[in-house]
Design a protein that fits this description.
343 residues, alpha/beta, globular, disordered N terminus
Length: 343
């Protein structure tokens, strides 16, 4: 399990409903998009295309994919690198209840893409087949587990198009962003475009600022998440963003009794004060409790960081691009720069 949500106790993709009607006919319709074993990196040009993903699987197609379906956060990251019109469909948190884009969608135009599912356990396989996809792209928090691809329909889904999976944990954020850049370049993105180079420069500037802030203000930071029954202390040794922040000198607390999977330690609210943090980096996803919700919990209000107002939002499922990650470091740097020790 990676981070707390209303999911089964595993970081593998959640089960979705089976029994899709008409898949056989649509499989035949998508047959033309299957690869013929071509070698080499197409780089967006004509001729055979290939890419080796983080499963060490080489995906080969007759030409550069023109119809890509991706997990929403993955699509948003590729969009940041310049992949746009090729993305025809997404799955995962895309729109909020009010119709506005989910934060994970980044700058992706969510009205231009077909949404196959907006939450866990949602992936419309028939609609996916109807898109005639060339390629499916998603994250991989656990080895060989395609993020947001339901286990019970995975076989149907992976028969419709080749898939690329990129690691999203256990290695630092900057390395994962590098892999996304590799994939985007293979798909035809220009990594020398001003949009990309400006974003990379901002990322590097933000990293330098965070390093300076951590050195000048040696406060203890706890990455955490709140639910109705439990308070979760996250592990900087496995979460890609936290792992990178640690490499920059941020003093992130390491929980000493991790749950299965290693992503966090779950604590009862009575034990929410187990780790003495000066700053709380609080999970800001819509499925988790926010400060206004947590205010009703006496144990939350007693935390020194809460009393000092030293709480900063944490995008615990970061967008793996320079444009997506830079604001996260800027926000954390600002919080550390203005924090004081309270323990």
């Amino acid at each position: 399990m990676r981070t707390p949500r209303s999911v089964s106790p595993s970081r593998r993709a959640i089960l979705a409903t089976g029994g899709v009607v008409g898949i056989g006919a649509l499989l035949a319709a998508c047959g033309g998009s299957k690869g013929s074993g071509g070698a080499g990196d197409g780089g967006g040009k004509g001729g055979p295309w290939s890419f080796t993903d983080d499963r060490k699987q080489k995906v080969a197609l007759p030409q550069t994919p023109r119809r890509i379906v991706a997990f929403t956060g993955t699509a948003a990251a590729l969009h940041d690198f310049g992949i746009d019109d090729q993305i025809v469909g997404v799955f995962g948190p895309t729109k909020l209840a009010n119709g506005k884009p989910d934060p994970q969608a980044g700058d992706l135009d969510v009205d231009k893409v077909t949404i196959l599912g907006n939450a866990y356990n949602q992936f419309n396989v028939e609609k996916y087949a109807g898109l005639a996809p060339d390629l499916l792209v998603t994250n991989m928090y656990e080895p060989d587990a395609l993020w947001f691809v339901p286990d019970d329909s995975k076989d149907k889904i992976t028969k419709l198009a080749k898939s690329v999976a990129l690691t999203a944990s256990r290695v630092p954020l900057d390395q994962i962003i590098g892999r996304y850049a590799d994939l985007a370049a293979a798909l035809g993105a220009d990594l020398k475009a001003k949009k990309v180079t400006d974003a990379k420069a901002r990322f590097e500037k933000a990293a330098a600022r965070l390093r300076r802030a951590a050195a000048a203000h040696p406060v203890k930071v706890l990455a955490c998440s709140g639910s109705a029954d439990l308070f979760y202390a996250s592990n900087p040794g496995i979460n890609a963003d936290l792992k990178y922040f640690t490499s920059l000198g941020v003093d992130l607390i390491v929980p000493d009794h991790l749950d299965k999977g290693g992503y966090f330690e779950s604590l009862s609210w009575e034990n929410a004060d187990k780790y003495r943090a000066d700053v709380l980096l609080l999970d800001n996803r819509t499925a988790t409790l926010q400060p206004k919700d947590l205010a009703a919990k006496p144990s939350w209000n007693k935390l020194p960081a809460v009393q000092a107002g030293q709480i900063t939002p944490w995008a615990s499922e970061p967008r793996f691009s320079y444009a997506g990650a830079a604001p996260l470091m800027e926000s954390l740097a600002q919080a550390i720069e203005h924090a004081k020790k309270v323990n």
